[in-house]
Amino acid sequence: MADEPLVLGIETSCDETGVGIVHGHTLLADAVASSVEEHARFGGVVPEVASRAHLEAMVPTIRRALKDAGVAASDLDGIAVTAGPGLAGALLVGVSAAKAYAYALGKPLYGVNHLASHICVDQLEHGALPEPTMALLVSGGHSSLLLTTDITSDVRPLGSTIDDAAGEAFDKVARVLGLGFPGGPAVDRYARDGDPKAIRFPRGLTGPRDPVYDFSFSGLKTAVARWVEERRREGADVPIADVAASFQEAVTDVLTRKAIRACKDHGVEHLMIGGGVAANSRLRAMAQRRCADAGIELRVPRPKLCTDNGAMVAALGAEMVARGRSASDWDLPADSSLPVTEPHVPGRTPATAPGHHH
What we know:
Blueprint: E1 6-11, E2 16-23, E3 26-34, H1 36-40, H2 47-69, E4 78-84, H3 88-105, E5 109-113, H4 114-120, H5 123-126, E6 133-138, E7 143-150, E8 154-160, H6 166-176, H7 183-191, H8 218-233, H9 240-266, E9 270-274, H10 281-294, E10 297-299, H11 303-306, H12 310-322, E11 344-345
Parallel strand pairs: 1-4, 4-5, 6-9, 9-10
Antiparallel strand pairs: 1-2, 2-3, 5-11, 6-7, 7-8
């Protein structure tokens, strides 16, 4: 049992209420209730709306996950929950629910890091994570390059975005082009019919003096908006597919270039790409080609596991149990700015080790 723990994971860092159940590296259930429809009206995520949606969705989503997995709550070896980073109010709903279930069932509680979970989810797709693994996490809130030698205790940030995250840039460019929210899938779809070389948009932070592993997409986003405005001012048609493809090319070029550079610099042979933007078809194709050229093995989970979900939290929780990491205290806080260097938030006292309250 020890090496194949049965863990339920709860994810509420943003607008998805995710509940996953994992047995070791095997995914048994991945139930998601999304409030994205409610946010679409506002063109972005509204924290108060998200928190309320999590409250309403929590119990039915947990019930659905247990039913899908065919397990009883009493069979679980632990409950894992995203303790941060994310929207404070949204996180609080998940953390409170996890505490209630863990306490009521007499199971250990594991507060885990949202970003480390995005890396760990790959174990459900491709088996145990190689150590070390380089991870490129790209989502609406994050663009980070992380080096991990132990997903439960050692995740080192090498670089991150200094302004907009990649996903944020996709959303804003989609808005400029009138493609709706969320922008990532829409841009990807339109870009398939466009020419990626049609417009030469800037590649941020790729100069000789720029920080090697950091990202910047704010200038790119502005460049796209200016280019589109200019065309409209001249009364010319805006070639949406070409703009989408050229923008997407600029983003994926920088992301893959920096990730491979980081692998080479640190002698790491495995690159994992996760987060919502990892579902982007061009990013996957370019990373695949460049990794093959550099002799690096690429691991990208299937798109459904790249976006926020409960399975990734359960995966990291199961790893915590399997490696005997200490459980979290009952006063586990929801920390909206939990640093990635803390894959999980353990208890402070040995008395909270799993099993002590049985």
